[in-house]
Amino acid sequence: MVIERIREKLWEIFENPDGKVSLYFTIKDYRNRYNSYKPGTSNAMNKELIGILLDVMAELEGKQLMPFNPIGSLEDVLEVCDYDSVDSLTRIWDSLTDSKLLEAPPEDISKFTFYCLVVQLNEDKQAYFFRRITNFKKLKKGIIGQLVSGDYQKIEAELLGIDNYVDIIGYDGKLIAINHVSMERIFDIKTQYRESAMRTLALIKDTGRIENFARFEEDSINDGRVIRGLTRILQDPSKVDRCFENFEKIKELVHTMQLNIRFSEDGSQLVYEDKNQLQNITLIIRDAYYQTFITERYGVDELA
Fold it and tell me: Which superkingdom heads the taxonomic lineage of this protein's source (predicted)?
């Protein structure tokens, strides 16, 4: 319903979008700071931009909406999360305010990371459409040109591309991720993953169920896949306690799946020995191992 609602509002302003569309190009630097530049756009350009968005929204209608999963996403599924769950969003909003905007674009416009179209749908509702910048650097050693009066002429200026795709939509306090990878790259949530993973590790430490925990913690925080898994657990923190309260089930699982995991002499702890065990231990805590009902086949739900 959200996609349909946005599309309806876009149709309402399509014929006259003047004053209702703002385009921002944003730089994200190595310190994760955001700086934005707002170019002027004509009414004709604004109408064309709305037309692109309408085409995008038509393709998204009917797609299933699911909560954002740090580990990955299924095909043809849109992921949703709250604005509040993305720490960098406040800094991006701040960079779009008139008082913080860059007065001029950088000399090297290839530094722009993404652009954002902000559309005023009505008096109190805005929609944000994020897209990573189309990369023209592949043609750096070639020539980009156009046909003018039958002649092929080189275009001297650097180009910024706006294509017919959107990576992320922001509306009514929610982010809708069409492209999972873009969520990480535009909003730099890898840093946020690490902080979330540390909170999950603190919960695991409190259970006292992993021998050599300090080494397990250090290796975990340096493994990108494990960090995502630990972040996923934080969406349901009680899963940690539920897992280790059923410690006999863990022993049964390790035996059944033939996992390379030992237990302490008194049987009260998992013994962490090396990095090869990281993923298996995280999958155990995530309760990702399963057995099918009909064929009783064993497997792993990588998105659990």
Answer: Bacteria
Q: Does the reported pTM lie above 0.85?
A: yes
- Give tens-digit pLDDT for 232-282: 999 999 999 999 999 999 999 999 999 999 999 999 999 999 999 999 999
Residue 120, CA distances (Å) to 12, 90, 126 in order: 11, 19, 5
CB of 211 closer than 8 Å to CB of 272: yes
| CA–CA separation, 125 and 171 (whole Å) | 8
Range of the domain at 112: 1-187
Say which amino acid occupies 102. L
Q: What Å distances lie between residue 88 and 32, 68, 95, 116, CA to CA?
A: 8, 16, 11, 15
In this structure, the answer to whether residues 166 and 35 fall within a common structural domain is: yes
- What's the first-to-final CA gap in the chain, in angstroms? 26
- Our count of domains for the chain comes to 2
183 plus 249 within the same structural domain: no
Alpha-carbon distance 170 to 118, whole Å? 9
CA pair distance 54, 52, nearest whole angstrom: 5
Residue pair 263/271 in contact by the 8 Å Cβ criterion: yes
